[in-house]
Amino acid sequence: MKTRILLVCLVLAALPDPGHASVRNYFAPELDGLRLASCLAGNEGCGKPAADAYCRAQGYETAVLFQREAAAETVTLGDGGRCSGTSCVAFRQIKCQSPLEVSADGNS
């Protein structure tokens, strides 16, 4: 019995602590008043690279989730290029995550 309790404690101690991450959702993110395009420039750096760049610009480390949708007008984060019309694709949502800063004494 003591072995099982010890094993459970060891497994729980090895799991990541959800309290050590900061997460923020951005719904229909904008740049300069326009919806954020899902590519960094033209058709380059689309999806995860563009979502990651947006998260870094907001002070987060990485994008852990992103969704896209059609938009009438967008602007790219990388070069400020604009798109108007039916072919524009914007981020519907970006979820950014970054570890919290931990001081030398182990406190957040």
Q: Any overview of this molecule?
A:
The chain has 108 residues and is of the alpha+beta class. The protein has one domain. 21% of the residues lie in helices and 35% in strands. It has helices at 2-14, 48-57; strands spanning 21-27, 30-31, 34-36, 62-70, 73-75, 82-84, 89-99. The strands form 2 sheets. Strands 2-3-5-6 form a 4-stranded mixed beta sheet, with no helix packed on it. It has a 3-stranded antiparallel beta sheet with strand order 1-7-4, with helices on one face. The longest helix is centred in the first third of the chain and has 13 residues, at 2-14. The chain starts with a helix and ends in a 9-residue tail after the last strand.
Quick check: average pLDDT?
Answer: 83
Low-confidence segments, ≥5 residues, pLDDT <50? 5-16
Could you spell the SSE succession in H and E letters?
Answer: HEEEHEEEE
The total count of helices amounts to: 2
Enumerate the strands of the largest sheet in spatial order, edge to edge or round the barrel.
2-3-5-6
Approximate strand percentage: 35-45%
- Proportion of helical residues: 10-25%
Whole-angstrom Rg:
19 Å
Number of strands: 7
Biggest sheet layout: 4 strands, mixed
**What count of structural domains?**
1
| Overall geometric form | elongated
How many angstroms separate the termini?
35 Å
Structural category is alpha+beta
